[in-house]
Amino acid sequence: MSGMGTAPAAPSTDPHAGHDMSGMGTAPAAPSTDPHAGHDMSGMGTAPAAPSTDPHAGHAMPGMAMPPRVSTSADNPGRPPEDPVPAAASGGPAHAADLLFDPAEMAVARQQLLVENGDVRTTAVIIDQLEATVADGDAAYDWNAQGWSGGDINRFWWKSEGGGSFADGIEDAELQALYSRAVRPFWDIQTGLRQTYRPEGDRTDLVVGVQGLAPHWFEVGAAAFLSNKGELSARVEAEYDQRITNRWIVQPRAEVNLSATDIPDLEIGSGVTSLQVGARLRYEIRKELAPYVGVEWTRHFGGTADYLAASGQGAEETRIVIGLRAWF
Question: Shortest CA distance to 190 belongs to which of 212, 209, 213?
Answer without folding.
Answer: 209
